[in-house]
Structure formats: C-alpha cells, structure tokens
Amino acid sequence: MAAETQIEQAGGSGPNPMAQFEVKRIFDIDLMGYDASFTNSSLFMILGVVLTSTFLIFAMRKKSMIPGRLQSIAELSYNFIYDMVLSAIGPKGIKYFPFVFTLFLFILAMNMLGMFTLPLGHLSFTVTSHIIVTFAIAMAIFLGVTVIGFKNHGFGFLKLFVPSGVPALLLPLIIVIEIISYLSRPISLSVRLFANMMVGHTLLKVLGSFVAALGVAGIGPLLLMIPFTGLEILVAFLQAFVFAVLTCIYLNDAINLHH
Amino acid sequence: MTGQGKKETGQDERSLKDIESRLGQLGEKLDKVRDENSLSENATRSIARSHNQMGTAFRITSELVGPVLVSTFIGYWLDQYFATKPVLMILFFVLGVVTGFVNVVRAAKKMQQETIDSGAYKEAKDMPFDDDDD
Known about the structure:
The complex is a heterodimer of chains A (259) and B (134).
Chain A: H1 2-11, E1 25-27, E2 30-31, E3 34-35, E4 38-39, H2 40-59, H3 69-88, H4 97-115, H5 131-153, H6 171-183, H7 185-214, H8 219-256
Antiparallel strand pairs in A: 1-4, 2-3
Helix pairs in contact in A: 2-3, 2-4, 3-4, 3-8, 4-8, 5-7, 5-8, 7-8
Chain B: H1 2-82, H2 87-118, H3 120-126
C-alpha cells in the first residue's frame, strides 16, 4: 500500500501509467495462513489456458484433408514449433516438444491477452509483465534442464563447463565464466520477457494519457500509438518465440552436450 | 434424328474449342498465381528470417546484461559470507562483464556460422559486386 501511494504521488494528477500492473483481488482465499486469493492475474492465466485449449480442440475437431482457416492456423503453429524443436535439438528432442509447444502457446496467450482485453476494463492485465511469473517459469525450465542433463549424462554433464580446446592456464577463469553464464540463464530469460512486456505497455499507457490530455492536438500521439501498438503485438509474439527458442537451446545443451 | 446428330456433333466441336480456350486461360491464370505465390513464399521466408534476427537481437542484449547482475549478486553474497566487503563484489562484477561479452561473442560466432551454413553468405559473396577480375 505504501508503495502504491508513493507511485501515485510521484505521478501527479494524471492517470497513473503503472496502475495497469496492479494485482487486484477478485475473491479471497486463505490457504493455511498463506494468501492464495484469486486475483486478476489468476483470472488471466486461466483465461489463457482455456482459450488456447479450446481453440486447438475446436480448430482440429474436423481434421479435414484440406484445412479451413482455423485448422491451418493450428497446424501452422504446431509445425512452426515442431520444426524449431527438430532443428534446435534434433530427433532426440521430440519428446520435449509438447512442453515447448505448451510453453510457447501459454506465453503467447498471456502476452496477447494483455493487448486485446479492453472490454474487461480495469481488470485487464498482462500476466507476463510481472517478473515473479516469468522468473517462476524460467526457474522451472532451468531446474528441469539441469535435472535432465544430470539424468542423461551423470556427472559428465559438468563437462558443459569445460569447453574443449582451452589452454590449461586459462581453464580456471573459463570455468568460472561458464558457471556464471549458466547461472545467469534464468535471470536473463525472465528479465527479457518481463521488461519487454512492461516497457511496451507503460509506453502505450503514457502515450494514451497524452491523447486524453491534449484534446484536439491529441491526434499527434494517437497517430504515434498506431505503429507502437503494432510493434507491441510483434514484440508480444517475438518474446514468446524467443522464450521457446532459448528453452530449446538449453534443452539441447542438456541432451546433446556439445558446446 | 440425323439432323439432331449433326447438331450435337457441331455443339460438341464448339464446346470442345470452348473448353480448350478455357483450359488455356486457366493455365495462364494458374501460372500467374504460381508466380505470385512463389514470390509471397519468398517474402514470408524473409519476414521469418527478419523475425528471427530481431529475436536474436533481443537475446543478445539480455545475455550481455544478465550475467553482470547475477555475478554481482554472487559477489555481494560471498562478501557477506566471508566478510570481505567489497573485494569479491568488484571481482565478480568484472567477471560478470567478461561473461557477458563472452556470451555475445559466442552468439555472434554461432550466427555467422549459421549464415555460412545456410548458403546466404555464399550467395551474397557470389553476387556481381566488383567488375575488375583479379
């Protein structure tokens, strides 16, 4: 609450561009002393899961030889990720395809719902603009990849930190660098997604408040908003894609272990 | 009866010619559509490639910054553990910067290798660029 009032004071009289990132409770749930309330964040996660699942099931209900529009969208997205997994990991990686596909669709739905949910008014929310959400996903991937690596290669997985063809003198330094690089994966993975989503949405909100404040002259920022909205949609797609690509690259390290 | 038969053959001939001309037209249309499609296929491929490049750009920026944050935090934590403020934090900050650069150089090398493997590099190299044959 204190932070909230601080932001409001700093923002002055106009609409607060950070208000869109507030987590609001819809109804309270108390789980053994922990606050597990159903918030707008939870609502949008559920909405995303339900929308993607129903879309895929609905689009593939006919499975016709000549796909209709919906079916070709579903098949296109499936093929897109399938090709990516195959080219990044190889045939051994196909068993992780369902995970990567789910991850991609979930993040894509989260990002896109933040762009297209005006009718919900003040409840509108972008789940991936909160670092705790993206960090939780990234950490799950990081731990999962580490477990898969040790399961596939035993302690041989530690060879990941010892690149071949390095002079013995430099080896200690290189190993430290490799370990730092490995440990920084979840941070760079989560910060990238969160920062891109938050920055874009804040920018759109600030431009939007200019439109409202300037009256007739607001046409200027309004025109500026059009390309930025397009860019935001592109970024929303691209970040989901990059997240999936990097998951594949990390899985590749754990499965094939060549550096 | 015979008259009718003659008429029918006449109709057949006419419709045959009609069909042939229509076939020709259709063929032309098909060729056109095919040309357009191959063009748009190329366009989508280049769009996909540019998306991929933009994705790589996003990736590289965060791979430059991520290790610095993580490494500095590790240094800070180790400093508190060994009570050696601020030596390890500075050391690990420098290490983090080095790691970031190593990451970026590696990603760039990999991208270059991919470009060479995909043949795009050779294509660009083989383009008629200079006219003096040396």
